[in-house]
Structure formats: structure tokens, C-alpha cells
Amino acid sequence: MKKRLLAYSLAALLLVAAPTVQAADYIMCPGDELSITVVGHDDISSTGVTGGNKSPYVVRPDGKLDFPLIGSMDTTGLTVDQFTQALQVRLAEYIIAPNVSINITKLGTTRVFVFGEVKRAGVQELDRSHNVLDAIGKAEGFTKDAAKKKVVLIRKGVKEEKDLIYVNFNNLLTKGDMSQNYQLFEGDSLYLTGNGRIDFSKDVLPFVSGFYMVDRISNNKD
Questions:
Q1: Which residues contact 29 (CB under 8 A, 6 or more apart)?
Q2: Staple partner for 163: which of 148, 158, 169, 215, CB 3.0–4.6 Å?
Q3: Does one domain contain both 125 and 195?
Q4: Which residue has the higher pLDDT, 66 or 25?
């Protein structure tokens, strides 16, 4: 009965976590294609991939976007609304009271690594939402042996145990505690242990190093 309730909780949370993209809460990521309109300034506006012959603006792999007059702008951690406001502020240095609207014409993807007690370990490509719940869903869920109270989040580049983030996935499932549904970024890793204990050098570093090596080889072939 308890397992069935957990399954229902996960299904309900997945439905909540995968809505249509809203500018208010969608955090931009590399690969996003944007239709940007600056009212009265067609020379720097984009009509997007449909409805015209101008190309969309694209967020680069480093999270930055190039825009006329301004140059490079960092989108990291920003929602579309926040980026729109930031762009208006920067454009105000060159244009009187700029009126900017932005729509996402194509979503980028965020690649993360999920390993340990999940049904399909490996590199997962996330779109729409880029968070813990989405990543575990892409990995087809956890196994019966997973210690759901202590999922380990390893940010890209972390090399010390003190910088690990521990996620109580059980509270996310049973209590709807969305504070545990951390935002994930390119190259982050999730590790689901079998007993809640973790030896950083033995359990984490070999997996992360192995995934990074495979990913680097794959990228070099593309």
C-alpha cells in the first residue's frame, strides 16, 4: 500500500512539474531559441523561426546570448521575464524607453548525469523543466533499494565532499516539499545510494569522472 501511494505521489508530481512553458517560471538554458521584438526597431528584432526570414536569437552553450548594441548578456539562472527586464535596462542606454517582448520558439536541453539506484542510469537530456524530479523521471524512476531520504546532488566541477547537496526525495514525494526539487544545470549529477551512506572518493568521483570522459569523447565526435 505504501509503495502504491509513493507511485501515485510521483505520478501527481510529474504532472505538476511538466506544464507548458511559462515565462514567469521557466529558467533559460543553453540552446533556447528566442524571438525577440523591440517595438519600433525592426533592425534588431527577430521574427523567430516562423513568420519571417530573420533567424532567432540563440543562447550559447556558455549560457550567454549576443544582442546588437549590447553585445553578450548572461542568461544563467534567469527566467524569460527576468531576462526581458535585464535586456530592457541594457537597451535603455541606447534607446529611449525600449519596449521588449520575448517568446521561446524552441527549447534547449540540459544534460545531467543520474546514477546509482535508478532504472536507467546515464546521461539524461532535460527539456521544459530542469530539476531533480524531471531527472529521476527521465531515468525511469528509482529502484526498490534506493535511499530516497538522501539523494546526492553533485554540481558540475565539485571535487570536495563538503560541497555535496543532500536531497530528501521522500519529502518531495510524500509531502510535496518542492524546496527539495532543486534546479539542475548542464553537467550536474544525481546519485541515489542504496543505504543513504556515501563515500565520496569511492562512490561519487569514479562515476562522475567516467561520465565526464564519455561525454567529452562524444562531444569531440560531433
A1: 59, 63, 107, 108, 109, 110, 130, 185, 186
A2: 158
A3: yes
A4: 66
The span from the CA of 217 to the CA of 206, in Å, is 17
Residue 157 near residue 81, CB atoms below 8 Å: no
In whole angstroms, what is the distance from residue 165 CA to residue 181 CA?
12
The answer to whether the predicted template modeling score (pTM) of the entire model surpasses 0.70 is no
List % helix, strand, coil for the chain (3-state, nearest 5).
Answer: 30, 25, 45
Q: Where are the alpha helices (DSSP H) in 111-156?
A: 132-138
Answer yes or no: do 214 and 135 share one domain.
Answer: yes
**Cell matching residue 212:** 565526464
CATH of the domain at 63: 3.30.1950.10
Residue 36 per-residue DSSP state: E
Is 59 in contact with 28 (CB distance < 8 Å)? Answer: yes
- Confidence class for position 190, pLDDT limits 50, 70, 90: very high
Give the model confidence (pLDDT) of 87-127 as tens digits: 999 999 999 999 999 998 888 888 899 988 999 988 898 87
CB 186 within 8 A of CB 111: yes
User: Looking at the domain assignment, is residue 150 inside a domain?
Assistant: yes
For 147, the domain range is: 2-20+109-221
Give bridge partners of residue 66 from the DSSP assignment: 72
Query: Which grid cell is 133?
Result: 524530479
User: DSSP 3-state assignment of 108?
Assistant: coil
